[in-house]
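Sample entry (108 residues):
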Amino acid sequence: MDLRELLSIPYLLEAEAVETEPGQWRVRLAYRELPGCTAEASVVEEALRELERRRIELIVRLVEEGKQPPIPRKPLTASDPLWTAQDLGLSDRVATLLGGATGPATRN
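Predicted structure, serialized as tokens:
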């Protein structure tokens, strides 16, 4: 499987709200199928962005180390991992590994 396919694999998302202090809540998100891939924030959108960043960084690091990330199910055919990487500010590194380029066609 190439990097584009590996970055298109859907992982099960686990979410929970945790009261850290009386009246203070945080959202914890995790892809348990990817060891160590967790994020926490006071706003769910922030936690999800951080979780996605960590998922991409983890998969890219494993591929660079010659290791294969867990593949619990088939990649999504409609997924665009380069767009996701661009949206998260990881586009240069991921585009290089995917053999693509960033430029004017990127999403702002």
